[in-house]
Structure formats: C-alpha cells, structure tokens
Amino acid sequence: MPFDSIVAIAPTVLVIDDDPRVRETLEIMLDTYGFQVVMASNGRQGIAAFRDAAPDVVITDILMPEQDGIETIRAIRSEFPDAKIIAMSGRGDFAGPDYLTIACKLGADRSILKPFDGEELENTLRSVLSMHSDKLATIAIGTASLHRTLDGIEERLDRLEIGLRARAFNAVSSPRDLVA
C-alpha cells in the first residue's frame, strides 16, 4: 500500500464550560481557526467527552457546578498524563484565590483569563499544541522510515515471487511434464 500523501486532520479541542454563551462563542472562534470542537457543560461530562473524543487540547473553565475545573484538570491529568490542558476563568487575583495559578500548579499547561480576544486564544492554543511537536516529528520520521522499510520488503518479496515463477517454469521441460 503506497503512502504517497499525508492527510492533515484538524486538531480537536474539548471545551468545558457551564455557560452556553461561552461555549457557543468558543465554538465559533475555534471553528474559524480550523479546529474541530467538542463541548461539555461540566467537568464530569468533560471527562466522559475526553474519553470518547481523545481531543488534542482541553479548554476548561474553573468555576462550574457538579465538578469544577480544578477537579477536572486533576482527573484528566491523572488518567491521561500527556493531555494538553488550558484553564480559563473570569476571576483573577482581585476576586479571591488566583484560580488560574492553582490550575497550572495542578496540571494545566497554560491559562487564559476571561474575557480574552481571539488572538490571545489562538496563540495560547498554538503554544500548547506545539509543546510536544518534537515528539510528533520523531514519530513522523520513524513512520516514514518504517514505510520505506516496508516498501523495500514488498519489493524484495515481488522479486522473490518472480524468481520462483521463473524457476517453476524452467523446471517444466516439456508439455508432458505439465500433464504429469
């Protein structure tokens, strides 16, 4: 099977936020930037959605009912250590605890303070996605090498099959040998 082309797949972002307006706004923004989007309205739904969709990045609000973002980050990080997580909150130092700093200490890769603009969101996403790009490059190089090896093996098997057919043909000395 030849591998002449690589199909680019848009990264998937899981958005976890209890506010439907925030989810809708983020869905529109992320779609505009070329991301696939999966939505959840609380942390429990978010963890289930993560298991189903295996997103490339999670963006989670911190203050939510049922299961807050801190618990969600810890649960995702525990179950999926390589998950890329962005914490977001509308509360900064002025409103009590610095939830975003706590979120980063407990497993979020980056944080973003609401309200944020599209450029800030896109830059944060691209930054988190590029965090493991060296691992992806190594995988791509290894995969290309594997494909070359498999192509070489396939070529050698084809030559061997042709050689065996030629020997079988040469082994038949006369039409009588074919009947026997």
Features:
7 helices; Rossmann fold; 2 domains; alpha/beta; 180 residues
Describe the structure.
This protein has 180 residues and is an alpha/beta fold. The chain has helices spanning 20-32, 43-53, 69-79, 99-105, 118-130, 133-171, 175-179; strands at 12-16, 36-40, 57-61, 85-89, 110-113. Strands 2-1-3-4-5 form a 5-stranded parallel β-sheet, sandwiched between helices. The longest helix has 39 residues, at 133-171.
Order of helices and strands: EHEHEHEHEHHH
How many domains? The number is 2
DSSP E strands, number:
5
At CATH level 2, the architecture of the largest domain is 3-Layer(aba) Sandwich
| Shape summary | elongated
Main sheet strand line-up:
2-1-3-4-5
Strand content of the residues, in percent? Answer: 5-15%
Radius of gyration: 27 Å
Judged by helices, strands and strand pairing, the structural class is alpha/beta
CATH topology of the largest domain: Rossmann fold
CATH class of the largest domain: Alpha Beta
The low-pLDDT segments are 134-142
